[in-house]
């Protein structure tokens, strides 16, 4: 069984990803920080986190149908139903967007969760220790100031409603 990760890098002539299209080995790393862990000793401070490292080889998706399918999958993963609401990419835009596939050869996941791990003698020190939780939250949507007319952001509203206040406020509207 083979697995792949996909990414869009923008225009094919973009320098930042030029080497990845040559079939060169690549590394993809993602870390989510869940908390700052403060111990009684500075050398024991830490973070609670979730992390993954993926090794593989990148190559461009040349066929426009596959490229379009990958871009649609990106859109639908972020906001299900959004692809049906927006203008789909023109042939020119699709040709001008590079999509890379990364064949995954190795993957590693690591996490840390929990309180500080102090030296035994430090537990008696009169110093606060614990975890400061960190989180990413969805805020109120902000309407583009160049919007004309009144449009219901249905896919956006439906997808984000569970994460926003009951009123699902929309900022930036007159």
Give an account of the 3D structure:
The protein is α+β, with helices and mostly antiparallel strands. The protein has two domains: 4-136, Pnp Oxidase, Chain A, CATH 2.30.110.10; 137-174, no CATH class. Helix content is 18%, strand content 34%. It is built from four helices and seven strands; from the N terminus they run βββαααβββαβ. It has helices spanning 64-78, 82-85, 91-95, 154-160; strands spanning 4-10, 25-38, 46-60, 98-112, 130-133, 141-142, 170-171. The strands form two sheets. A five-stranded antiparallel sheet has the order 1-4-3-2-5. A two-stranded parallel sheet has the order 6-7. It starts with a strand and ends with a strand. The model is unreliable at 166-170 (pLDDT under 50).
Unreliable runs? 166-170
* Rg measurement, Å: 22 Å
Second CATH tier, the architecture of the largest domain: Roll
Distance between the termini: 53 Å
Q: What order do the SSEs take from the amino end to the carboxyl end, as H and E?
A: EEEHHHEEEHE
Domain count, please report it.
Answer: 2
Query: What would CATH call the homologous superfamily of the largest domain?
Result: Electron Transport, Fmn-binding Protein, Chain A
